[in-house]
Amino acid sequence: TIRSVVRGTGHYLPDRVIENSWFEERLDTTDDWIRTRTGIERRHFAAEGQATSDMGLRAARAALDRAGLKPDDIDGIVLATSTPDHTFPASATMIQHGLGMTHGFAYDVQAVCAGFVFALANADAMIRGGLARRVLVIGAETFSRIMDWSDRGTCVLFGDGAGAVVLEGQKGTGSSNDQGILACDLNSDGRYRDLLYVDGGVSTTGTAGQLRMQGNLVFRHAVEKLAKTAHAALDKAGLAAADVDWLVPHQANARIITATAQKMGLPMDKVILTVADHGNTSAASIPLALSVADGEGRFRQGDVIVTEAIGGGLSWGSVVLRW
Ligand code: ACO
User: Which of 29, 67, 154, 249, by CA, is between 20 and 30 Å from 132?
Assistant: First the structure.
């Protein structure tokens, strides 16, 4: 059996930090409302002209550094993003170029906030299928570019940033004691499009559009579906919630994260929480959280880590891995 093992993590956050007070000056909202309803205290916004691939490139370089690897060692790049530099080419190819690579493949995966979970599962399948040995899996987003700044129900929630991991195929025994990705569970249901979407696009309006969300309905689906997909992935891995050392959830809302941990019977000291400092960075939130926690030395070899996410589509899923 081949297992996809995490060799390194890295992240990048743009310099510009926006505190909740910034919104108090512009909208009918308060720091207290944002904190208590979402857990968000601040978020980063990309600089003017700073593209998604620029942030993804910096995160990729950081992950390669931590892994002790060079771009030459990488066989391919999978970038999860819903805010690409251009309609095409894939922003992943811009990252590839930035790394000085002229070999290997590079493409984007689009599953909104679930994008990194989908990209991890995708890269894992390619590694196990023999298409690549080492894959850079990146989540990078500039949601600040698709906000409606007059909609207090959405514009306070999102931030920009990027995170990356290097996955490497290594021999395993096929048991749940192996290091690496043990199981994935992916789901989508297009009936729920209207709950969370961007009201523009190439083949419809010809504009980039702005994010629209029925937050309370997304909230209800999140609480119902996240624990379910995490349990499904654990089940496929032959593990139970009691085996979990760390939950690394998509960072959309602290209340959703707390409710999911509660449903899984996990104490909050097993949950990585970065939403207070990053806001919702969509596909970047999980690799950002992984990299921040890894940098703090919180994961020990052999730890069972569960990631889970839900976003526009709706699309949702979970990846279980052993560190
Ligand atoms: N400041 C003050 N009041 C606000 C704000 C704000 N920033 N935003 C909304 N309100 C008001 C509403 O207008 C409403 O007022 P009303 O009762 O007078 O109509 C009231 O607060 C309650 O609104 P709800 O939307 O019901 O509030 P809720 O407790 O559900 O919190 C929130 C809203 C934070 C958006 C929550 O629903 C949420 O987090 N939803 C999930 C979002 C999410 O996780 N998305 C993930 C996927 S993102 C992706 O895929 C791109």
Answer: 249
- Ligand 1: nearest atom to the Cα of 155: 7
**C-alpha 44 to ligand 1 mean position (Å):** 20
Q: Please identify which of the residues 113, 122, 253, 278 carries the catalytic annotation.
A: 113
For 53-81, write each residue's pLDDT tens digit.
Answer: 999 999 999 999 999 999 999 999 999 99
From the centroid of its chain, how far is CA 36?
A: 23
Given this model, what pLDDT does residue 153 score?
Answer: 97
pLDDT at 166: 98
Residues with Cβ within 8 Å of residue 278, at least 6 apart in sequence: 13, 43, 44, 159, 161, 251, 285, 288, 289
User: DSSP letter string over 145-192?
Assistant: GG--TT-HHHHTTB-EEEEEEEEEEEE--SSTTSSEEEEEEEEE-GGG
- Regions of the chain short of the pLDDT cut 50: none
Tell me, yes or no, if 155 is annotated catalytic: no
Q: Using CA positions, which residue lies closest to atom 24 of ligand 1?
A: 216
Q: Domains of the chain (ranges plus CATH)?
A: 2-171 (3.40.47.10), 180-322 (3.40.47.10)
ipTM at complex level = 0.91
Nearest CA residue ID for atom 35, ligand 1:
215
